Backbone:
């Protein structure tokens, strides 16, 4: 019997950098086990530097959209992972059976302009998230 995919929602404030990176990484690493989404409390659009650093991993997030977290309240989400402290405080209340996890990830956002000098901060954010994703995948199947 085929196992039901676990629905995971990554949430940050703008849904432009951290949550988009996390969505792309988890989908790439374990998309066969997880349905992955991202959203924000104040969504904007996907940051061009997030798209650029994900290309380095051969992960295309250029078609991702920036969605409001309220869109997912009745979506049957199994796990909500907040990736910034603000989103952790502002995240709406999901049903009681939804597992909630918080990762305090530093925000690489310094404005909307594309500046090569900022790519390293986006890479560091991606590396931090990737470590947490690897542990999340492992922990999800160790139980």
Residues:
């Amino acid at each position: 019997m085929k196992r039901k995919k676990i629905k995971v929602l990554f949430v940050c404030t703008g849904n432009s950098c951290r949550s988009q990176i996390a969505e792309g990484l988890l989908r790439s690493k374990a998309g066969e086990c997880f349905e992955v989404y991202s959203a924000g409390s104040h969504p904007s659009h996907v940051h061009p530097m997030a798209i650029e650093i994900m290309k380095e991993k051969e992960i295309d997030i250029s078609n991702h959209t920036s969605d409001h977290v309220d869109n997912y309240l009745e979506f049957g989400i199994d796990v909500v992972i907040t990736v910034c402290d603000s989103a952790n405080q502002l995240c709406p209340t999901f049903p009681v059976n939804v597992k909630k996890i918080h990762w305090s990830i530093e925000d690489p956002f310094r404005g909307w302009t594309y500046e090569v000098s900022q790519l390293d901060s986006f890479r560091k954010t991606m590396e931090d998230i990737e470590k947490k994703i690897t542990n999340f995948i492992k922990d999800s199947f160790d139980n």
